[in-house]
Structures are given as C-alpha cells and as structure tokens.
Amino acid sequence: MKNKRFFITLLSAVLIVTSLTSCGKSFRDAAKQKGFRAGMSVGAGIFFDKSVSKIIKENSYVVVSENCMKWANLRPNKNFWNWNDIDQLVKYAQENNMDVKWHTLFWHRQNSPFVSSNWTREQALKMMDEHIETIMTRYKGKISEYDVVNEMFEEDGSFRKNVWYETIGPDYIEHALIKAHEVDPDTKLYLNEYNNECKGNRKADAMFNYVKELKEKGVPIDGVGMQMHLDTSYNYNENAIRANIQRYAEIGIEISFSELDVRIPMDAIEAHEVVQENIYLSLYKLASEEPNVTSVITWGYTDKKSWIPAEFPGKGNALMYDKDSKPKKVYKDVLEYLRK
Ligand code: G3I
Questions:
Q1: Domain spans of the chain?
Q2: Candidates 42, 66, 153: which one to mutate for ligand 1, based on the most atoms within 8 Å of Cβ?
Q3: 327: DSSP letter
Q4: What percentage of residues in the chain have a pLDDT greater than 90?
Q5: Are 107 and 153 in contact (CB under 8 A)?
Q6: 67 Cα to the center of ligand 1, angstroms
Q7: Among residues 151, 193, 254, 290, which one is catalytic?
Q8: CB of 109 closer than 6 A to ligand 1?
Q9: Which range among 5-14, 248-257, 322-331 shows the weakest confidence by mean pLDDT?
C-alpha cells in the first residue's frame, strides 16, 4: 500500500516536471523536440539590435541571410567580394548555437552586372567553379546547407532559361552540385523552388522527377527546399503536400520549408487570419509528423519589414510577429502545438 502511494506520488512529480519543462520551452526548442530545426532569414547585421537578437535566439536553430549571400550583394563586381555581412552572421550563429544556411549560389535574380549571357560555355563553367570554390572553401565546416540553385523551373515544368542555362545548358545544375560536393563533401546540398510543394502540380512533379533522376545517376543532392510563400486567397492542400514530402522520403531526399510566409489581403485581414493560422498550424504539423522535413524557416519574422508589398501590392501581414514585433495569436498557437 505504502509502495503504491510512493509510486503514485513519484509518477505525479515526474508528470508535473515534464509538463512544466515543456511549457517553458522556447519556440526553437519546442520545434527541436518535434524533430526539426526552426529558423528565419535575417537582414544584414540586424542581430546587433538586442531586442531583435532575443527574438532570433528564441526562434532559430538555423539562420539564412535574406540578401547578402546573393551575387549582387556578395560580389558586386568581378574583383570585390563583400564578406563582411556574412562573416558577422556566421560568427553570431556560432556564438548562439545556430546553423547557417547559404542562400543562394546560383539564381536568375540579384546577379551582378558582370554576370553575362554572352559568356561561352567554358567561360561560364569557369565562373561557376570559381564562385563555388571561393565561397565553399572560405566557409568549409561553417555552413550546414547550401541552396545550390534557386528557382530553376518554370510553372509548366520546363527549365527556367536563366543565365546559367543559356550559357552552359541544362547540365549546369548537375555540374554545380558535383563541384560543390567536391569542395565541401560534408555540407548538405539543396535545390530550392517555389510552387513545388503539391504533388500533382506540374512544376512540383517536374522537380520531383528531375531530383529522382539525379539520385539515380549518383549526382550528390541531399534536399529540396519548398519556399512556401503562400497566400490565404489560394487553395491550400495539406494532403498533396504530405504526398509530395513522402515521395521525396522514398528516394532519400530531405525537405526544408525554406522561406515560409502566408500573406493575406490587407483589406480583409480579420476574415483571412483564421485561414492563415490553419495554414501555419498545418505546416508545422507536417514538419513534426514527416521525418524527412528537417527545417522550417520563415522569411523574416515581423510584418514591420517584408518583401511582400513590393512584389504583391495590397497583400501583407504574412509573418507571425506583427509590425511592432510582438508575437501574434498564430505564433502563440503554433508554439502551443509544438510544446505538446
Ligand atoms: O541594396 C539596394 C539598395 O542599395 C537600393 O538603394 C535599394 C533601392 O530599391 O535596393 C536595394 O536592393 C534591394 C534588396 O532587396 C535589398 O534590400 C532590391 O531592390 C530588392 O529587389 C531586393 O529584394 C529582395 C528580393 O529577394 C529580390 O529578388 C528581397 O529583399 C528578398 O526578400 C527576396 O527574397 C526572395 C528569395 O531570395 C528567393 N525566393 C523569393 C524571395 C522573395 O522574393
């Protein structure tokens, strides 16, 4: 009898301690407990502001630069490399136990003026190799994953005719992956894309078939980024996303929700907030339930500063912190789900 009472008291104590510990977990630790890294993109040097740094630390085990790793910012002309912002980010991340993701080695936007469609294949390959070698040698062991190529498909599933496609040909992606693996075999290599999250979508299917082909050929590739710049005005299909994630798991590919935000029409904010919350909850649930989803990275964290109004006028309020950098209801509800 005494033993039974002792056992019940012990069990209650364990339950209370467990629930208290999980109650107090930060967003990033709650996500870690669910099996993935939470993170965000950060603007150059914003972590020098203590209040911003506090938010980054609560929410991130992985950070990515919003702009400073892109050609136009990193290498504005042929002879000058602007390492400063990236070095600062890498130092900050190391001091705060965070991974750094590189975004992006090759893309059709934000290129430097000297990146030219007039290069011959040989000139373009030389430039590509130089870019990979310079960056990946400098940051060897310090970058957990690279977006090697960003946005390489058109909506119809054909390859986007970016400068690298035009000068090198469709094998530019393979070439970049092989070279990147040669320079830093221990980092993870990703291809990153938007509108590629739903199985059955033309672009998503084309990307899956292409990645499968790369795997079969033995080309080094570890993951696919699904940007997840979503909009509450469009249909959201959890089943199609899950099916897509699972077919990637079958071929040994990990998934990152790599640039998450969910924009809503500014003239109907309240009506769309519930839809937005359901989308956020669904994605964090998918990340918790599907073992090959390894990170969920939001594109920034606050509505105070966002790329959306510039590209989607009339849309916004897409993140989980409001314009005063205070967590919204959606943030609290996602956190509560992650802590369970
Ligand atoms: O640095 C210049 C500054 O010198 C100049 O005075 C100012 C005038 O407009 O522009 C500044 O550059 C801007 C840059 O952001 C840095 O703030 C560019 O105009 C602006 O186009 C650029 O926008 C970025 C956009 O990519 C460009 O393609 C956004 O911040 C960035 O959030 C966005 O991120 C992309 C991802 O890389 C890929 N997926 C989509 C996502 C959203 O478009």
A1: 23-339
A2: 66
A3: B
A4: 92
A5: no
A6: 7
A7: 151
A8: yes
A9: 5-14
- Give the per-residue pLDDT at 233: 97
Query: What is the predicted pLDDT for the residue at 4?
Result: 52
Residue at 12: amino acid letter: S
State whether the beta carbon of 227 lies less than 6 angstroms from ligand 1: yes
> Using H for helix, E for strand and C for coil, what is the string for the chain?
CHHHHHHHHHHHHHHHHHHHHHHCCCHHHHHHHCCCEEEEEECCCHHHCHHHHHHHHHHCCEEEECCCCCHHHHCCECCECCCHHHHHHHHHHHHCCCEEEEEEEECCCCCCCCCCCCCCHHHHHHHHHHHHHHHHHHCCCCCCEEEEEECCECCCCCECCCHHHHHHCCCHHHHHHHHHHHHCCCCEEEEEECCCCCCCCHHHHHHHHHHHHHHHHCCCCCEEEECCEEECCCCCCHHHHHHHHHHHHHCCCEEEEEEEEEEEECCCHHHHHHHHHHHHHHHHHHHHHCCCEEEEEECCCECCCCCHHHHCCCEECCCCECCCCCECHHHHHHHHHHHC
What fold does the segment set 23-339 form as a domain? TIM Barrel (3.20.20)
Nearest residue by C-alpha to atom 4 in ligand 1: 73
- Choose which residue among 109, 195, 307 to substitute to test ligand 1 binding: the one with the highest number of ligand atoms within 8 A of its C-beta: 307
74 C-alpha to ligand 1 centroid (Å): 13
Ligand 1 touching residue 110 (CB < 6 A): yes
- pLDDT-derived band at 306 (thresholds 50, 70, 90) equals confident
Going by C-alpha positions, the residue among 303, 285, 281, 301 that lies closest to residue 293 is 285
Nearest-atom number in ligand 1 for the CA of 259 is 39
Task: Look at residue 315 in the predicted model and tell me its pLDDT.
Answer: 97
Give the predicted TM-score (pTM) of the model. 0.94
Question: Identity (one letter) of the amino acid at 22?
Answer: S
Res 9 pLDDT > 60: no
pLDDT of residue 22: 55
